[in-house]
Automatic annotation (TrEMBL):
It comes from Megalops atlanticus (Tarpon). GO terms for cellular component: mitochondrial matrix; nucleus. It is found in: Mitochondrion matrix; Nucleus; Cytoplasm. Its main location: mitochondrion. Belongs to the class I-like SAM-binding methyltransferase superfamily. TRM5/TYW2 family. Belongs to the TRM5 / TYW2 family. The gene is TRMT5. This is tRNA (guanine(37)-N1)-methyltransferase. Residues 172-439 form the SAM-dependent methyltransferase TRM5/TYW2-type domain. It catalyses: guanosine(37) in tRNA + S-adenosyl-L-methionine = N(1)-methylguanosine(37) in tRNA + S-adenosyl-L-homocysteine + H(+).
Amino acid sequence: MRMAPVMFRSACRILTFVNTQSSANLQRVSQLVPRALLKQACAPSSSGQLSLKACARELMPEQSRGADSALYTPPAGVRGMTSLDREAFSWTVSVPALRIPKEVLNKLAAAAGPGLRFLPSSFSGAEAEALQKAGVPLEVQNYELRMTYENLKSEEVLRAVLPEGQDVTSGFSRVGHIAHMNLREHQLPYKNLIGQVIMDKTPGITCVVNKTNTIDSTYRNFQMEVLAGDGNMVAKVRENGVTYEFDFSRVYWNPRLSTEHERVVELLRPGDTVLDVFAGVGPFAVPAARRGCSVLANDLNPESHRWLLHNCKLNKVDGKVRAFNMDGRAFIRGPLREALPALLRGAAGVHVVMNLPALALEFLDAFRGLLDPGLSQDVGGLPRVHCYGFSKQDDPHRDVVDRASASLGAPLEGRCSVHLVRNVAPNKEMMCVSFALPKEVLFSNHSAETDSPEEPPTKKQKSDDTAD
Ligand SMILES: C[S@@+](CC[C@H](N)C(=O)[O-])C[C@H]1O[C@@H](n2cnc3c(N)ncnc32)[C@H](O)[C@@H]1O
């Protein structure tokens, strides 16, 4: 980006200003300010004031903003505000300035060169020469710069409003047009104002929600409260080049899993089959089908199932995906078991994906004795399982391998790979164990059904302060 050689200096408090009363002048300014900024400068009005402020904002070096806190500190009266009054964020700062006639702006720009700065009391020889040549009097004047809500970043607004000394972190996850926040206790009295500020300051965000409980529903969706905006929960997102649509209030979606989705999909080859036990709205299933795989995808949540079907159509892979709406264990012992013998006789790969990290390791016992031992001779390759699990242990690798082995009833040590997906919370990791389903498990005489005739009920998910 090209910066103006004559620029606002907050640390030394000098402001260069131009008379921008006409669009012709704005054009001249455009040669001095970054292109993106000109749009902003021209948008509000053709008045010089607005243009000037827009320029001041952008030309201020980031590191100087802290050094000149007065310029970005709104009136003290906004402290404690709970309903956003944007007008209350207006104030005037007196700043030293150099007046530069509009006619010489271009000349000055050329003479000054990109690195030149004009300092108030100590113009260097080159600086003074450039200014004098251009007929600019070396007189520093006072300029009353009017600042408004528009000039502030969301953090600056919130720091001015929330109680002094308290954390104003205003981070959020973005899901399409929805900003998804996880506000702390002390921020709750200001929640609607925070939502409004996030919406004002983030292009494309038209709805702000706050998580109202821990993620403890079976379907892994959040309970949420709308803080600001239109309340439209049907989001459209793109992940790894694929478009998904879903009702964010009723299904699971986590933008932090895009790398993991991509990692697994890249393991697949065209012609492989993917058996997705906890498919959600399709972030493994849809890209796998787009890659030329056949997919059986299941989810217990009827809403996820509905949006999964929708996303298959949206991405024109409905012919490659068969979708099911049942418990994961029933899926493994039903459609997956039916499909497996024929698949294992073929040469293509078979991948089982199990992304329900709070519980998936416990579902692995459903593979015990899944197939008739008489079929074991016909088998070429074995299905490759990618099973997710959370761990809070000091050695999460070992922990998930031990739990997977216990659930399968066969040791995996030395015949699996373990991938750290992400750190979910302090001392809580999300892991993925990948392994070829051992023959002695798949063709065991003891099935999970014969070992325990009653199917274990789906356990209530453990509460956690995290988004999984
Ligand atoms: C963590 S999400 C993962 C969704 C998707 N695979 C992804 O990567 O985003 C787990 C999914 O499992 C579903 N689920 C929860 N319990 C289930 C069960 N017992 N059987 C099948 N699906 C279940 C939830 O509805 C949710 O969509």
